Amino acid sequence: MVETKESLAKDKKISVWAAAGIIVLVIVIIIGSGMFIGRQFFWNQQERMTKLEHDLQVAVANVQREPENPAYRVDLGYVYFRMGDYESAEKEFANALKLDPGRLSAKYNLALLKAELKEFDTAKTLLEEVVRDNPKFISGHASLGNLYLLMEEYDKALEEFNTVLKLFPTSSDAYYYIGQTYEKMGQIEKARENYEQALKFDPKHQGANEALKKLEAD
After folding, report:
1. Cα–Cα distance, 140 to 2 (Å, whole number)
2. Lowest-pLDDT range of 7-16, 111-120, 157-166, 206-215
3. Which distant-in-sequence residues (6+ apart) come within 8 Å of 149 by Cβ?
4. Poorest-confidence range of 51-55, 82-86, 161-165?
5. Crossing angle for the helix pair 70-83 and 35-65, nearest 10 degrees?
6. CB within 8 A of 57, min separation 6: which ones?
7. Assigned CATH for 135-218
8. Looking at the predicted structure, is the pLDDT value of residue 125 above 60?
9. pLDDT, average across residues 166-193
10. What's the rounded Cα separation, in Å, for the pair 76 and 85?
11. Where are the membrane-spanning stretches (predicted)?
12. In whole angstroms, how far apart are CA 214 and each of 178, 186, 218?
């Protein structure tokens, strides 16, 4: 569920030709040892492993420098969220909301966190506030629709997914989730129609393709 949060994180890669040039340049030194490949793999692994640590250091430094800046609090909370430190994440999102009660990113990310913790009622209340105050926030409507679907509040789920379509008429995901909702309601033909509509906008949509195959098999 979680779609869409406000502050979201990309990697550089050496081109094939550049890498080939490097190998040719040093092949005389390292031939037969496998050292170059091993080190490249190790460094890339280290890069990935330390990315979150680097983000954490930056976010903490920003908060220390400007503790009253709600955006920095959200950024720090989001890093904690990605690290799986949900307690610290919730604390930072709450701090951001104390500083700026209307901050969309803080409330939205807090709602996603609550959903991750299976505190669905709290997540629902927060997401309902998010879309009430930000009626054109597509990710908010999509996330609330998914939560309603999970909680078996199907009519409300359909309402949110249809709102997404009003804001983003070519959303294959919205059609897919409308199909999922109708399927849960036992309205198979309506489900099929929406899966097919999803595939019109995205022929490779994995969920819609799999759902149609499942319906055909049943």
Report:
1. 9
2. 7-16
3. 157, 177, 180, 181, 184
4. 51-55
5. 140
6. none
7. 1.25.40.10
8. yes
9. 98
10. 11
11. 14-38
12. 16, 14, 6
pLDDT for residue 15 is more than 90? no
pTM for this one? 0.76
Mean pLDDT, rounded, of the chain: 85
**Rounded CA separation 97/106 (Å):** 6
Q: At what angle do helices 104-116 and 138-150 cross, to 10 degrees?
A: 20
In 3D space, the residue among 92, 115, 88 whose CA is nearest the CA of residue 105 turns out to be 92
Q: Which two tokens stand for residue 91?
A: 């604390």
The contacts of residue 112 (CB under 8 Å, 6+ apart) are 1, 2, 5, 81, 123, 143
3-state SS, one letter per residue, for the chain: CCCCCCCCCCCCCCCHHHHHHHHHHHHHHHCCCCHHHHHHHHHHHHHHHHHHHHHHHHHHHHHHHCCCCHHHHHHHHHHHHHHCCHHHHHHHHHHHHHHCCCCHHHHHHHHHHHHHCCCHHHHHHHHHHHHHHCCCCHHHHHHHHHHHHHCCCHHHHHHHHHHHHHHCCCCHHHHHHHHHHHHHCCCHHHHHHHHHHHHHHCCCCHHHHHHHHHHHHC
Domain range 37-122, CATH class:
mainly alpha
Tell me how far apart the alpha carbons of residues 97 and 133 are, in angstroms, rounded to a whole number: 14
Entry field: residues in the chain: 218
